[in-house]
Specification:
homodimer; 196 residues; alpha/beta; 5-stranded parallel beta sheet; 55% helix; 15% strand; globular
């Protein structure tokens, strides 16, 4: 039996994916971060957490286990629930993988301008965040090389995270989730107990 | 001297780029469509107007004249004006080309879900529009192969054209243009007569 509904979240670094995840958790929806799955794998392998190493590991995992290797690891860590959020999908291959694994898949793109994302990442200072514009551009290129742009272009929904405070965007995400889930539940009486 | 402000519009087929162009024209802003530039070239060469031929010609033009060949032809057809809209940019190379040609460049992505775009294209029936889902998916792939997804991912603004009537989206585009141009003019007293 396939699982219920998966909301796949795609966005460039610093676009606000983690705020969306926070909104989902606040509404009781489990969230699995594909980035965290790779970072955990780095810890297991005794590797460092900087962006280059993580990107290299994501690449290695795909070379070792195929285009959907990270998606597979992510699915193993996804709890059974009627609705889950999977944060950080990076290619159309991964989207297809999740489409096969779930009854229904929605792809949500979170968008912010490069300038806004750069400003946010400079303020965030996570270990794998870029410290200079050149690093930022390089990291963007790595993400695009994996296929993030194609997933954004073919997404079902897009939320613009521009000119909003963190709190305002958090509220927008909660509103979006409530609206979309209400619509879905109206159409699918028992998500997770679908026809297949 | 470089030209003034260019608003580059990117979007997958059927996302609503032409509605945005209509909004720009209604506000007196000249619009040049990169698709029209290629279609005109097809007419000159006595070729047909179907999507495959147009896509093949766009590819041939780039092979003959470099990644920015269509952008160059487009620039030749762009009237001198403080603000212009260039519709249908397809790669980061083209964005860079226009950045060198204009004082200021804004990249605007227009987004609709695949399902909405397909429905619209079926209703539109332009000669080069897909007639079946498979053709639609194939055309999407050709667009993505040119780099449309990367331009969308790195755009400065995104407008979602979902669940709106044509008139509602037209109004949204006009509001967006008025807001952005007011902001730009406040910062740049004489766009088109910049410092370089």
């Amino acid at each position: 039996m396939r699982r219920g509904i998966a909301i796949l979240v795609v966005g460039m670094p610093g676009s606000g994916k983690s705020v969306f995840s926070e909104a989902a958790r606040a509404l009781g929806i489990p969230v699995v971060s594909m980035g965290d799955v790779v970072r955990l794998e780095a810890v297991k392998r005794g590797l460092s957490q900087d962006a280059k190493t993580i990107a290299q590991l994501a690449k290695t995992l795909r070379e070792e286990g195929g285009a959907c290797a990270v998606a597979k690891l992510t699915l193993e860590r996804t709890p059974p629930a009627p609705v889950v959020v999977i944060d950080g999908v990076r290619s159309l291959d991964e989207v297809e993988f999740f489409r096969r694994a779930f009854e229904k898949v929605l792809v949500l793109a979170i968008h912010s301008s490069p300038r806004t994302r750069f400003t946010r990442l400079m303020a965030r200072c996570r270990e794998d965040d870029p410290k200079r514009w050149e690093e930022f551009v390089e990291r963007d290129r790595r993400e695009l090389a994996m296929g993030v742009g194609e997933v954004i272009a073919l997404s079902d929904y897009v939320l613009a995270n521009e000119g909003l405070s963190r709190e305002e965007f958090l509220r927008l995400c909660k509103e979006w989730l409530n609206r979309v889930l209400t619509e879905l539940r109206a159409r699918t009486p028992n998500p997770g107990e679908g026809s297949q």
